[in-house]
Automatic annotation (TrEMBL):
<dbReference type="Pfam" id="PF00126">
    <property type="entry name" value="HTH_1"/>
</dbReference>
<dbReference type="InterPro" id="IPR000847">
    <property type="entry name" value="LysR_HTH_N"/>
</dbReference>
<dbReference type="InterPro" id="IPR005119">
    <property type="entry name" value="LysR_subst-bd"/>
</dbReference>
<feature type="domain" description="HTH lysR-type">
    <location>
        <begin position="6"/>
        <end position="63"/>
    </location>
</feature>
<protein>
    <submittedName>
        <fullName>LysR family transcriptional regulator</fullName>
    </submittedName>
</protein>
<comment type="similarity">
    <text>Belongs to the LysR transcriptional regulatory family.</text>
</comment>
<keyword id="KW-0805">Transcription regulation</keyword>
<dbReference type="InterPro" id="IPR036390">
    <property type="entry name" value="WH_DNA-bd_sf"/>
</dbReference>
<dbReference type="InterPro" id="IPR036388">
    <property type="entry name" value="WH-like_DNA-bd_sf"/>
</dbReference>
<dbReference type="InterPro" id="IPR058163">
    <property type="entry name" value="LysR-type_TF_proteobact-type"/>
</dbReference>
<keyword id="KW-0238">DNA-binding</keyword>
<keyword id="KW-0804">Transcription</keyword>
<dbReference type="Pfam" id="PF03466">
    <property type="entry name" value="LysR_substrate"/>
</dbReference>
Length: 293
């Protein structure tokens, strides 16, 4: 009876192409040609009897079947790597998958990752981002960085960072805000996927927000850019938002107005005892980095 278990080479190529969303970038990572990557992906699709990618002019994206298949392939490859390491010693390269809330990845991780890679050149890190809880469901990762209730995402974890909320805007708008009531003169840009909001700020200031006009964005980076373009006032979520606030040229509207956030960013993992060496290195580095940075 013929087996439907695909070639390990095909699976490695599929995983790289799915992670990079490009046959050319996958080829560069695997020291192959883009044509060879395309041929091996096609061979895998033929064996499985279903397309795994949508082909576009300069990129590829996973089909529904491909998205469903990817976590199992990644987990299987890492289990094989872990078993090989356990039996035959460390390989030159240790792979690590980390998924993070976009704002934390942009404002905190990005500036620290060069330090991590310089100290641990043997770790090949793949970083992906998300905003909504659904982005973090049914994904295979070693570690996840989430905001809010950590029990919704994993069984074990560490608190990383809390936040402070305050209004920011372009200097010409900020100069017109002399009291909290002046905020209502402008649209307030709200991030629909973030659990902390303008309502929390107004509750802390004991202000009714019925007269507020909201414009909704799906992430804090977009909110900052919209504010920079004159769409309204954004809500900073320091320190994770510090980089995008600076880059967008935004300034604080009311220096005396700030509210401590009610929730925090957490590093989540299934089982600390079963953590792979690369994940353990990253956890130790990240806990120290957020404490001292």
């Amino acid at each position: 009876m013929a087996t439907r278990i695909p070639s390990l080479n095909w699976l490695r190529v599929f995983e790289a192409a799915a992670r990079t969303e490009s046959f050319a970038r996958a080829a560069a990572q695997l020291n192959m040609s883009a044509a060879a990557v395309s041929q091996q992906v096609k061979a895998l699709e033929t064996q499985l009897g279903t397309p795994l990618f949508h082909r576009h002019a300069h990129a590829v994206t996973l089909t529904e079947a491909g998205r469903a298949y990817l976590p199992s392939v990644q987990q299987s490859l890492l289990m094989l790597e872990t078993a090989t390491t356990g039996l035959f010693g460390e390989s030159r390269e240790q792979r690590l998958f980390v998924q993070s809330v976009l704002l934390f990845a942009h404002g905190v991780l990005a500036r620290g990752l060069p330090q991590f890679q310089a100290g641990h050149p043997q770790v090949s890190l793949a970083l992906s981002t998300g905003n909504m809880a659904a982005d973090f469901a049914n994904q295979f990762t070693d570690l996840q960085i989430v905001f809010g209730n950590p029990s919704l995402f994993g069984t074990e974890g560490d608190e990383l960072l809390r936040e402070v909320l305050y209004p920011v805007a372009p200097p010409e708008i900020a100069a017109q805000i002399r009291s909290p009531q002046d905020l209502f003169r402008f649209p307030l840009i709200e991030v629909s996927t973030h659990r902390a909001s303008w309502v929390q700020l107004f509750e802390n200031l004991r202000l009714s927000h019925r007269q507020a006009r909201y414009f909704f964005a799906d992430n804090s980076l977009m909110a900052a850019e919209l504010s920079a373009q004159g769409m309204g006032i954004a809500l900073a979520r320091a320190p994770a938002s510090d980089a995008v606030v600076r880059a967008s040229g935004l300034v604080r509207c009311l220096p005396e107005v700030e509210v401590p956030g009610r929730e925090a960013y957490h590093l989540i993992y299934p089982d600390r005892g079963a953590m792979r060496p690369a994940a353990r290195l990253f956890r130790d580095w990240l806990l120290d980095y957020v404490r001292t940075g």
